[in-house]
Design goal:
Blueprint: H1 2-15, H2 41-51, H3 70-84, H4 95-110, H5 117-120, H6 130-147, H7 154-162
Helix pairs in contact: 4-6
The structure holds heme C.
Length: about 160
């Protein structure tokens, strides 16, 4: 039993040496949703507190993100999250992607899937009250309207092809 415990401790010590990429790529403020002033003042902080640690290049890495294996999990979350939605490169998205992503943002907020529970548990400032959640949903809906993108239905697409 003692050997097992020492074995586990040794493994835990060794995994600390596995490098984890915690870099934040350089920020181009012109491409960022918040910095390009598309977000009303009072919502900026809200969005940054609730979403930016994962969905942007402005991740703040807490001390426990330096401890393996937690660091691996956090790194994986951030990588996945940025692939899905990255507000730091928002303005580089095509309209179609913006529209799709905005819809998803509305959905995850309505269904209380985001911000992730494991995150709000440790980050009280990211917890959203019902009113704040509603404000963010309304903001994303306004963005959808402002974008004015309309996906063609399959029927319309077929019609175009047959022309
Ligand atoms: C702690 C990290 C974290 C925070 C904070 C966070 N997300 Fe996410 N988000 C993720 C991860 C990881 C995924 C990808 C895995 C998944 O879909 O569960 C994701 C996925 C998404 C998706 C794609 C969902 C889908 O169905 O593909 C949307 C949209 C999204 N997040 C929006 C938001 C918004 C809006 C906020 C802020 C209100 C937010 N997230 C806060 C980690 C986070």
């Amino acid at each position: 039993m003692q050997r097992l415990i020492w074995g586990v401790i040794l493994v835990l010590l060794l995994v600390q040496f596995i490098p984890v990429n915690r870099s934040n790529p350089p920020l181009n403020t012109g491409e960022d949703l918040v910095y390009s002033r598309m977000v009303p003042g009072d919502l900026q902080q809200l969005l940054q507190n609730a979403c930016y640690d994962c969905h942007s290049f402005e991740t703040e890495y807490p001390w426990y993100s330096y401890v393996a294996p937690v660091s691996f999990i956090i790194r994986h979350h951030i990588k996945e999250a940025r692939e899905k939605v990255n507000f730091s490169i928002w303005n580089t998205y095509m309209d179609k992607r913006k529209d799709h992503t905005l819809d998803e943002c509305i959905e995850v907020l309505e269904e209380q899937e985001m911000p992730l529970k494991s995150f709000t548990w440790l980050h009280p400032e990211a917890r959203l009250s019902d009113v704040q959640r509603e404000e963010l949903i309304q903001f994303f809906k306004d963005q959808v309207a402002a974008l004015g993108w309309r996906e063609m239905g399959t029927e319309e697409e077929e019609e175009m092809e047959n022309r």
